[in-house]
Design brief:
Elements (H helix, E strand, L loop, with lengths): L1 H6 L2 E7 L13 E3 L13 E3 L10 H14 L4 E2 L5 E6 L2 E8 L2 E6 L2 H14 L2 E6 L2 E2 L2 E6 L4 E5 L1 H10 L27 H8 L3 H14 L5 H8 L7 H13 L1
Antiparallel strand pairs: 1-7, 1-8, 2-3, 4-5, 5-6, 6-7, 9-10, 10-11
Helix pairs in contact: 6-7, 6-8
Length: 249
């Protein structure tokens, strides 16, 4: 995103339809006949898979291997991450970012962009979403005249607040209060208090906050890091601090 904003290049998005069905399998795998598809005696006859299918433990891995083989054959190379690719042709360049079935394409050449889209559509069933506007729960707001890109997780945060009953809470001015201190001495000391805290989805709440922090809200990184220290044995003070972060968001 930073490169796209800095160099004012194109940013498009594509979606792979039924991505996991594209993978090949290396093993011999049988499955019980699916409901409403019965051949012969369903109690004694099973299906032998010739391709990957949703539900296999290795489905996502096999899909990645298939995609990697195909995209490398088109001249792309791995950039710094196994799911980030680039291709250069003189001064023209294009970056491809893959996240399961979501693809972002960033390039300084429209011709290269359309060529890559045609190649992907030829090898996989694709959906061209045009200019990237929403990916992984993150809304992308772009103003090319100012050379800026804004990232927002408003809808995601709204869902988090609703899940933990904080959607109508009073907004907070800060994610952490001056003087807040956390220590292991605050953790439950007896089984009764441990059982009381087990009713609260503390770890889920902190995990939800962590995703927002990593993607678009680095301003809560400090307090989320502190709350993460007590995932295994939280106390009510830690839960109150997590709710304060939600009010701030």
């Amino acid at each position: 995103m930073a490169l796209v904003a800095h160099f004012d290049i194109e940013l498009h998005q594509m979606d792979v339809k039924t991505a996991f069905l594209n993978g090949d399998i290396d093993e011999t795998i049988y499955m019980v006949q699916p409901e409403n598809f019965e051949s012969g005696d369903p109690k004694n006859m099973v299906c032998k898979l010739t391709k990957s299918i949703y539900g296999l433990k290795q489905a996502s891995r096999q899909w990645y291997h298939k995609f990697h083989q195909v995209i490398v054959s088109f001249g792309f190379e791995i950039n710094v991450d196994n799911c980030v690719y680039h291709k250069f042709s003189g001064s023209k360049h294009i970056f491809l970012v893959l996240y399961v079935d979501d693809i972002l394409l960033a390039t300084n050449d429209i011709g290269m962009l359309h060529e890559t889209k045609r190649f992907l559509s030829k090898n996989f069933e694709m959906k061209d979403l045009g200019d990237a506007s929403f990916v992984l729960g993150i809304q992308i707001q772009r103003d090319r005249s100012w050379g800026i890109i804004g990232l927002s997780q408003r809808s995601y945060i709204d869902k988090v607040l609703k899940r933990f009953g904080m959607q109508d809470s009073k907004p907070g001015d800060t994610s952490v209060t001056k003087g807040d201190k956390f220590s292991l001495n605050q953790c439950p000391k007896n089984n009764l208090k441990v059982k009381e805290m087990q009713k609260i989805l503390y770890a889920s709440a902190v995990g939800s906050l962590m995703y927002a922090q990593v993607c678009t809200r680095p301003d809560i990184a400090y307090i989320v890091g502190m709350l993460c220290r007590y995932l295994n044995n939280p106390m009510m003070d830690h839960w109150k601090a997590a709710k304060r972060v939600m009010r701030y968001l």
